[in-house]
Amino acid sequence: MTETMTSQQRLVVAIAALASFVAFLDGTIVNVALPAISRELGGGLVTQQWVVDAYLITLSALILLAGSLSDAYGRILIMRIGLIGFGIASIGIAVAPNPEILIIGRALQGAAGAFLVPSSLALITSTMRGALQARAIGMWTALTTGAMVVGPVIGGLFVDYLSWRFAFLINVLPIAITLWLLTRLQHPDRRDPGARIDWLGAILCTLGLGLAVFALIEQPNLGWGSPAIWMPLAGGILLFLLFLLRQRTVPSPILPLGLFRVRNFWSGNITTLFVYAALSLNGFVVAVYLQQGAGLSATLAGLASLPITIMTIVLSSRMGALSGKYGPRFFMTVGPIVMAIGALLLLAVGEDFDYWWQVLPSMLVFGLGLAVTVSPLTAAILGSIESERSGIASAVNNAVARVAGLLIIAMLALVTGGGLDLAGFHQANIVAAALLLIGGVVSFVGIRNPRRERITTDS
C-alpha cells in the first residue's frame, strides 16, 4: 500500500519547491533580459557577462558552505536568511542606476540563492524517508522545473511590455508566500552545535573564482600582458589551489575530495562540467542573439527554447526508468552526442532568419538529447555514493555545474571571437557541440554499469 503524505509533509514539499523555484526562476529570466539591460545601462557584452557571472560566482562558491551552515544552525533558519536576502537583492537590482550596482546586487542574489537549494532539499530528506522521500524529491523536481518553462516567457513579457526591472521583482511574491508558509510549519529546526564550518575554505574558493573570472571577462579589453589581467588570474588560480589543498587537511571540508575516488562520481562530474558548460553557453547565446542579431522580441526569444524544456519534462522520468533498468552509461554517452547534433543544427541560422527551419529543429534535437542525459547523469553520480552522503554529493555536483557555466560565460569573448554577431553565434555553437562530444566520450570511457561503487571515507 502506498504511503500517503501528511499535511505537514505536503507543506514541507511546497516550501522546498517554492524556495528553490525562486533561485531557478531568476536564473532563467536573466538571459532574455540581458539585451534590454545592456541597452539601458550600457557596457555591452562585458556587462552581460558580469550580470550572469556575478550571480554564479557567489552561488558556486557558497553552495557547499550552505550545507554546513544548515547542519549547524538549522534548515529553516538558513532558508529564511536566503529568502530574505534574495528578496532584498532583487529589489536592489530592480532599482540599480548603473551596471556596477546591478552586478553587486546579482552577486548578493547568488549568495542568497546558495542558501536556498541545499536547505530546501535538506528539509525534505530530514522529514521523510524511503519511498516517500523519493516521491517528495520527484515532486520537488517537477515543480522546480516549472521555473524553466515560465522563466523565459515571464521575463520576455516584462521586458517587452513593462521593463526588465520588473522581471527581477517577480521573485518577491513567491518569497513572501514561502516565508508565510514557514510560519505554518510545525517541524522542529534540527541543529548540530558541534558542526564545524570551514569559513576560510569558503573565502579562498570565492576569491579564487572571482579573480579568475574577472581576468577572463576583462582580458579582451586589456590584453593578457596587462598586470590588471595576469595578476588576478594568477592570484585566483593560486587561491583556488590553496582551497583544494585545505580541503585535504581540514577536519570538516566543504568539498570532500575523498568522494572523487569513486569512478562514477568523478567521471560523472567531469561529464557534468562539459555538458553544463555547453548548456550555459547555448542558453546565453541563443537568448541574446535571437534578440540582438535576429531581431526577435524578448518574449519570442524566451519562447524559442521552450521545446527543450517541454521535452525534458515529458521524457526525463522515462529515461530515468530506462537508465535504472539498463544502466546509465549508454544514455550518458548518446545523450550528449545528440545534444551536440542539436547545437550544430544552429549553424543553419543565417542573415535571412527563419525560426521554424533554422532554430526549431535544433531545439527539438537538443531537447531530446538533454532528456536522455539529465536523469541518468544524476542517478549515476548520486547512486555511486552511499545514501548517508547523498546530500553533499548532490551539492558537489550542483557546484560543478554552476562553475562550468561560470567559466564558459567568462570566456565568451574568446569563444565568439569578440562579439555575438552571426559568425560569433556560429562559433559558440561549434564550441558547445565540441564540449558535448567530450562529455559523451568521458561517459563512455569512465562510467560503469554493473556495480555501483560505494564510498565510506569521510574526506
From TrEMBL:
<keyword id="KW-1133">Transmembrane helix</keyword>
<feature type="transmembrane region" description="Helical">
    <location>
        <begin position="296"/>
        <end position="317"/>
    </location>
</feature>
<keyword id="KW-0812">Transmembrane</keyword>
<feature type="transmembrane region" description="Helical">
    <location>
        <begin position="229"/>
        <end position="245"/>
    </location>
</feature>
<feature type="transmembrane region" description="Helical">
    <location>
        <begin position="428"/>
        <end position="447"/>
    </location>
</feature>
<feature type="transmembrane region" description="Helical">
    <location>
        <begin position="355"/>
        <end position="383"/>
    </location>
</feature>
<dbReference type="Pfam" id="PF07690">
    <property type="entry name" value="MFS_1"/>
</dbReference>
<feature type="transmembrane region" description="Helical">
    <location>
        <begin position="77"/>
        <end position="97"/>
    </location>
</feature>
<feature type="transmembrane region" description="Helical">
    <location>
        <begin position="266"/>
        <end position="290"/>
    </location>
</feature>
<feature type="transmembrane region" description="Helical">
    <location>
        <begin position="164"/>
        <end position="185"/>
    </location>
</feature>
<feature type="transmembrane region" description="Helical">
    <location>
        <begin position="136"/>
        <end position="158"/>
    </location>
</feature>
<feature type="transmembrane region" description="Helical">
    <location>
        <begin position="103"/>
        <end position="124"/>
    </location>
</feature>
<feature type="transmembrane region" description="Helical">
    <location>
        <begin position="197"/>
        <end position="217"/>
    </location>
</feature>
<feature type="transmembrane region" description="Helical">
    <location>
        <begin position="329"/>
        <end position="349"/>
    </location>
</feature>
<protein>
    <submittedName>
        <fullName>MFS transporter</fullName>
    </submittedName>
</protein>
<keyword id="KW-0472">Membrane</keyword>
<dbReference type="InterPro" id="IPR011701">
    <property type="entry name" value="MFS"/>
</dbReference>
<dbReference type="InterPro" id="IPR020846">
    <property type="entry name" value="MFS_dom"/>
</dbReference>
<feature type="domain" description="Major facilitator superfamily (MFS) profile">
    <location>
        <begin position="12"/>
        <end position="451"/>
    </location>
</feature>
<dbReference type="InterPro" id="IPR036259">
    <property type="entry name" value="MFS_trans_sf"/>
</dbReference>
<feature type="transmembrane region" description="Helical">
    <location>
        <begin position="54"/>
        <end position="70"/>
    </location>
</feature>
<feature type="transmembrane region" description="Helical">
    <location>
        <begin position="12"/>
        <end position="34"/>
    </location>
</feature>
<feature type="transmembrane region" description="Helical">
    <location>
        <begin position="395"/>
        <end position="416"/>
    </location>
</feature>
